[in-house]
Write a structure and sequence with these properties.
MetI-like fold; flat
């Protein structure tokens, strides 16, 4: 199979990979902030619940979580699953997994901020919500950006795990082409796509880090 044909067939899988990547970030970043809030809550049951959740999400393989999210509705509740649920299950599994990692990153960033800033903001008349989003979060974002960048780059590669429930993302398509042609050309092209994707992500995140330098 000629290279142009291989690339053309891989494009549909690449689009699926990008969709998984973007939707995971869209949902997991704000969810991670909520989980971090629960993890730091003074209400002990909520704090321990979030701690257990984070422990499970970080302590078990993402591949296993994909399988559980996909098959649980059928085996636990007897629900019939539509073909569209495969993609939904991928987004759910990726979101709850990455939200746990982002939660710990957020928590580390928030706890690194000097408590005196909260007191100063209170003296200036800021409410707790205003203090958090106007004063604290911009500083937290700068602190956590390198760690978030690492997770985002990992996410690019982890999208290939969706093959476990037969989502035709780029790596799955590449394997199918390679098996049909008895050639690794498709896999090499897929690897190049992942590499370029990661370069773009790293460039964007580095640009964000440079934009945050005004806090120095």
């Amino acid at each position: 199979m000629i290279l142009s044909t291989v690339i053309e067939q891989l494009l549909s899988g690449m689009i699926t990979s990008i969709e998984i990547f973007l939707l995971t970030l869209l949902f997991s970043l704000p969810l991670g902030l909520l989980i971090a809030g629960g993890r730091m809550s003074k209400f002990a049951p909520l704090r321990w619940l979030m701690k257990i959740y984070i422990s499970i999400m970080r302590g078990t393989p993402l591949m296993l979580q994909l399988i559980v999210v996909f098959f649980a509705p059928y085996y636990i509740f007897g629900m019939s699953l539509s073909p569209d649920y495969r993609f939904i299950a991928v987004i759910i599994a990726f979101t709850i997994n990455y939200a746990a990692y982002f939660a710990e990153i957020y928590r580390g960033g928030i706890e690194s901020i000097n408590s005196g800033q909260y007191e100063a903001a209170q003296v200036l008349g800021y409410s707790k919500i205003e203090t958090f989003f106007i004063i604290i979060m911009p500083q937290v974002f700068k602190v956590i950006l390198p760690s978030v960048t690492n997770e985002v780059i990992t996410l690019v590669k982890d999208t290939s795990l969706s093959f476990v429930i037969a989502i035709p993302e780029m790596f799955t398509v590449a394997k199918q082409i390679a098996a049909a042609d008895s050639s690794i050309a498709a896999l090499l092209v897929a690897g190049l796509f992942y590499y370029i994707f990661n370069i773009v992500v790293a460039f964007v995140m580095e640009h964000l880090e440079n934009r945050m330098n005004y806090y120095e």
